[in-house]
Amino acid sequence: PFRGAVTLDGPSGTGKSTVARGVAARLGAAYLDTGAMYRAATVAVLDAGVELDDAEAVARVVAGARITVGTGAGIERVEVDGVDVAVRIRGAEVTRAVSAVSAVPAVRRQLVAQQRDLVGAADTVVVEGRDIGTVVLPDATLKIYLTAAPEVRAQRRAGQLGVTDPAQIDALAADLRRRDEYDSSRADSPLRPAADAVVVDSSELSQQAVVDRIVALAEAAL
Ligand code: C5P
């Protein structure tokens, strides 16, 4: 029986995935990474060789692709037509193209429907993305919007990738800004906090402190 959903939205580089997994583990909940689904859809589009600005062709390719994601809080399982793409979806090629693919309304309709099915099959679930509290699960039990100052986000991304060169860190910051602008300004389901979301700024907090805060809110709400 469905007990509830915790949504975690926000821009890139806030530590959202690590926090979401941590919260899911602490709550004994399932975990759904919707960004992984848009990234998997992007793999299908890149492999089909269609132009990213041809929305109709992009939508057609994604409609024909079977995207599967695991909802366990452990090892990431992501497949396109039965092929494991868990490593490839984190690469630069996919990261560059994903915002364009995820701005196509038909792609969003398809993946949102799949996301709702996955959530419906869970007992308790933590769902991470950009539009989960606003569009996918407007009746979620608890909605969190996680932010952090742009410099902090670039530093964290650099740390994850092992980048120390200041010019490369600037390039990462520029890439984060570009993706956030694209995600926040698209017509369909732009990135923004839901009216009833709790906004958590992680700039000055450790990831552990962020997890603790969200778990406490979730335990009170579930
Ligand atoms: O969270 P992650 O960085 O993996 O998301 C990759 C991209 O997928 C985002 O930049 C955004 O364009 C898109 N996305 C989305 N809606 C979601 C999750 C991700 O549009 N719910």
From TrEMBL:
InterPro entries in the cross-refs: Cytidylate_kin, Cytidylate_kinase_dom, P-loop_NTPase
Reactions the enzyme catalyzes: dCMP + ATP = dCDP + ADP; CMP + ATP = CDP + ADP
One MF annotation (Gene Ontology) recorded for this entry: kinase activity
Short name of one Pfam family: Cytidylate_kin
Enzyme class label: transferase
Keyword Kinase: yes
Domain of life per record: Bacteria
Primary location recorded for the protein, binned into one broad class: cytoplasm
Residues binding ATP, per UniProt: 10-18
Location(s) in or outside the cell: Cytoplasm
Keywords on record: ATP-binding, Cytoplasm, Kinase, Nucleotide-binding, Transferase
Ranges of residues in domain Cytidylate kinase: 6-218
Record's keyword annotation contains Lipid metabolism: no
EC number: 2.7.4.25
Gene3D superfamilies found in the cross-reference section: P-loop containing nucleotide triphosphate hydrolases
Family according to the record: Belongs to the cytidylate kinase family. Type 1 subfamily.
HAMAP family, per database record: Cytidyl_kinase_type1
Stored PANTHER family: CYTIDYLATE KINASE (PTHR21299:SF2), CYTIDYLATE KINASE/PANTOATE-BETA-ALANINE LIGASE (PTHR21299)
Protein's name according to its UniProt entry: Cytidylate kinase
Gene: cmk
